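Hi! If you just cloned this repository, the fastest way to understand the data is to look at a raw example. We've pasted two of them here, unedited. The first protein comes first, obviously.
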Amino acid sequence: MGLSVFNFAKKDTEFFDLFLENAKFFHLGAELLDEVIKDPNQALERIEDILGLESAADEVNEKIINKLNLSFITPIDREDIYAIANELDKGVDMLQGALQRIIMYHAGHSTKRSHALTKLLLESTDELVKAFKLLSDVKKNQKEILDAVHKVSENESRGDLIYRADIGILFDEAAEAAKEHGASRAVIHLIKWKDILEDVEEALDHTKRVSDMIRGVVMKYA
């Protein structure tokens, strides 16, 4: 009887357990960023938390790579394991970078709509957690996994629209602020939050990249 790649003993699910661990770190990082976007005054308090998540995610990624190097047989293609591990780790790094930028820029308060962008990021990282919980039995859970992947894709498309609207709001706010406080101050605020929103939008795009990798695994093994 041939080996079924998704019919494992418990020890063989370790790659999926580690994926899930880093997906959870990605989601926790999104929660921290959402809190700081809502109240940038929390940024300094939260930086140690996000740095801790980044360090923990690096450790998990190292475990995955070490296990991959020691494994003769892997449950999915080695290239897929390596790519998924690195992209999950990169996601946490991106959120840490966004929070660091808020601190570095002394950003002040954001646009009213930027919270909608971080809400989508929260939803998408949560969908990734759901997908990775199910991935070790892809045949049984194919529909649920693809549902989660589809939601991430939808959120990425919605995020593009929200991002463009947010940038428009920033320009409107800058025009109004220039009348009261002068152009220099208004332009500085515009540049700060344009960069920060780009970071959030790129993190949301990144959830789509990870979800596409999950979809690829489903297509290969379901």
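Ok, and the second one:
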Amino acid sequence: MSVRKQQGLFAMFALTLGVAALYAFRLDAASLRGDEGFTALCAQWSLPAIVEGLRTIIPHPPLYHLFMRGWVALLGGSDLVLRWPSLVAGVLVAPLCYATGRHWAGERTGLWAAALAALNPFLLWHAQDARMYAILAATSLASVGFAVRLLEDRPRARGLWLGYVLTTLLAAATHYYALFLVLAENLAFLLSWVRGWHGRRTTLRWLAAQAVMALLILPWLLFAGGAMLGHAKDWIPAVSLWEYARRLALAFSLGTTIEMRHAWPWLLIMGALLLVGLAWSLGLGRRRERGAAEPLIASAMLWAALWVPLGITFILSLWRPAFDERYLIGCAPIYLLFVARGLAWVGQRRRWAAWALAAFIALGSAYSIYQYHYAPQHAKSSDWRGLVEYVVAQARPGDLLLINYPDPTQEYYNGGRLDYALLPAEYPVDVADTLAELARLAEEHPRLWLVPVRAGNWDRDLLVQGWLDRYADLERVQSFQGLEARLYHTAQRYTQTMRPVGLDLGGAIRLLGYDLRVEGERLEGDGVALGGQLVVTLYWEPLAEIGEDYTVFVQLLDPTGYLRGQQDSPPFGGAYLTSAWQVGERLVDRYTITVDPSGPAGTYQLVAGMYRWPSIERLPVTDAADKALGDHMSLGQVRVK
């Protein structure tokens, strides 16, 4: 082995260790996202259930989910364990880039390709994701590498043949988009056969490999193809060619954790290097490096492996939206190989220029990786782990957790510790059934926890939250990354904790009681500060049909009777007017009063009532004995300090 090759292998070994450390950093810092949660739940199914799911509802080949079933059974289902297979596959991409690049265009190209892969934010993101995409990237690149060597009439063809068949089958059994790669490889084979770049024996070996793979792949496609062909993802929009190219360039270059307005200098540079690499592969400006094979077959294979899957995916997306950057992750290492070839070409002429360009690319990658780890707007997932642990710690007997979107991550972190219900129960949403079920649950449970998620393909109008905001008392809101936990007290609870009133307005509306809060906490003996905000919750019950829309007033009067704070508004901010109220409802209505900061400290009087607009005629107030009490209700005293 030459000294140069030894140095290259040592550099590659050190780089691989660095990749492993980088990819393992904060591996379990983020909660599992929705698809990862599905991976975790699917891994707990029986083998027949997984196979049946793959046949009917899961649009993926069987390898990943069957492997994860055994992996979790062996090592458990923690976040770390679930993400380790992707981590290992992701680490392998860098040495595979080195091996493929070195064989195609020499040592420098291989090392540059490995370095680019090591720092690529897109590959790192998926190497820390409990899904199949990092495995797809590694197996796709390995398949291309074996395909090149198999077509070059090299010695030890039996081992190359076996390696090609195995890695290609692994890719195809990981994700259906790998079939586009198989087509690309066969187009490259067809070109090399037409050009006479390999002999008859190699042709027969290649055809035998395709026959074996077809015999192994086709039965599964016939068995489960319906789920794949019939599956539609409503969240994938149609894209124009420009948008398609822009999103892919950003993902393959700097990942999805950086905005385009910041990324364009890097995209221009990497795009230029890509063009140089493509031109070199066509024989333009080529200077063959020591140790590199004649790159005709490799260049044809890499061209096909990059452009054929990209082209097919775009054409398919015109018929049915089917584009997401991660589906094409198998093309990302090929893209980086061409960029690396461009860097090596620059380095042959101006070494300092190549290093300067590489440093600039590394700077952009580092920024994107930082954004991935620490920027809330680019957080990998919503913090279901923290939210569920919080609710479990705060829950009381009889509590119920309401989920308005079927996110499997909640179920994974919950692990049966909390009773929960999914409402709406299905999509399209049956509004009447959903509201009836909410009313039933509110009768059965004194406290309801809600995690509202606005999803276009489920509860897009936040129907559940809207109902609870109207008929239950919002006790507490706790925010987490991308989520919030809202604790509501239902009527059986808030009627026990409210300050009772029991006065009627106009003979048609009863104020059951009220509640006072300052900074989210119930007002007890401390009072409210001058300039502070007092939240007044009014609990209404309609006694008869109301033919008019009234306006509510809530006022705070100082010891001299001077008005020091008020809010006048239709009930619920105008969202639910009194003319729409139904007899027997119990409604929870909230108002916020800002205390005049220039007023005196002391004991203030809180009053409320309703009036007609625009006449400002107040509704008469009566007690349970129908005794007239004037035109407003005195709710009690508030200490202002």
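That's it. A detail worth noticing about the second one: The domain at 499-640 is CATH 2.70.50.60 (Coagulation Factor XIII; Chain A, domain 1).
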